[in-house]
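Lecture 7, part B: from sequences to assemblies.

Below are the input chains for today's worked example.
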Amino acid sequence: MTDATHKIQEISRRILENGKVDKIIGYQKGSMPMMNTPCVIRNPANVGQLVWDSHCRLNLAKYLGNTKERVGIIAKGCDSRNIVMHILENRIQREQMVIIGVPCNGMADKWKLSALVDGEVVAVTEANGNITVTSVSDEKAIPRAQALQENCVLCKHRNPVIYDELTAELVEEPQNMDRHESIRKIESMTPDERWRFFDDMLSSCTRCHACRNACPLCYCPTCFVDESRPQWVGKGMDPVDIRSYHFLRAFHCAGRCTDCGACEAACPMHIPVRLLTRKLEKDCFDRFKWSAGLSLDQRPAMDTYTPNDPNDFFK
Amino acid sequence: MSEFEPKIITFLCNWCSYGAADLAGVSRFQYPPNMRVIRVPCSGRISPKMLLYAFLNGADGVWVSGCHPGDCHYIEGNYFARRKFTLFKEFIEYNGIEPGRLNFSWISSAEGVKFAQVANTVIEDVRNLGPAKNFTKKAPERLTTL
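Predicted structure of the full complex, as structure tokens:
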């Protein structure tokens, strides 16, 4: 059991037992290796289910819901930023929550790990900064730092933004990092090249909507995908329908996306959907100096304005 | 009918640009008939879904016109719209729509001349770009070959 797991269980047991919260939202081991699933613990006797390792990719802010209960939630840097967005969007009150902050060193990319070995992965263990992947016929180890997801490598906010409890010392935040190199590469293409690039990228999409379902920003009572009168986006497998779905899904996250990578981690087809959301994240910062979820005092970029916003493209 | 005639979906704010279109009409300012006007209560009413829907259904260009910043009938609708359109224009061009297909303007109800001028430039720009290819939804192949 890792120190973080131990500490999470200890804090969870304490706040459940003294009645500070009604439930804890955390991770438990999934039924397959490398797949931790979110879980809700109400009974202090069950806190032993909670785990923390390199496979806690999903964003727990998704599971806060529109609740009146008092919630304990485990939050790494990106989860905490999404919790801030939920508070700003009046989904939940700060006072309702006990946030158990976990300073995060990034999550492992399951595609990188499973590509290491031949055959299906049956077990993954972690010790001394190395991750060992075992398949039926093979076993390989990789330094943890080399197995991280791309968004974790590019992450500038590893420590939780708001928290009530901490499981470990805060980690050092990287400075002066170029986060948008791949976006600028696409921007430098011609329109037709860009169209073909994304067509190619999304050609394997099966419209399973896992990227939407995993996204912590996604809680409309009726999603635009499910609207039928009028039906803004076709529901079929037509390439243009797939493009419009991804276009609108990304645009819906404009100014709210924290680049937590839950969409990409949930994608069964390994599509780099963050190339779309990160463009908007980049523009929000370039145009409006806004990064989502860093402060409770600032309104989100799309919910405010200034009289001298960019105006150059208006005739 | 050899020359390409673009189809342009135009969203006009009821309180300014729609009046400007009216003024351009009664003042007999000339502009080509390539626009299909949709009247909206405010430029802030326009959802990204609507703009995308126009392209999906075969528009060669889209033009949105609202009140000058500070002149919104609803005080601040066009300020919010401006932020939305800034990101939207960048993003749809990032996705492969040519710059020039999606146009925005601020036109007050007294600016009939400006309305005709902008209408001329928008239509001319889109005409030069040719028919829209990207983001236009084609009928499924099976149906077209029947």
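Note for the exam: The radius of gyration of chain B is 16 Å. Keep this in mind when comparing with the next example.
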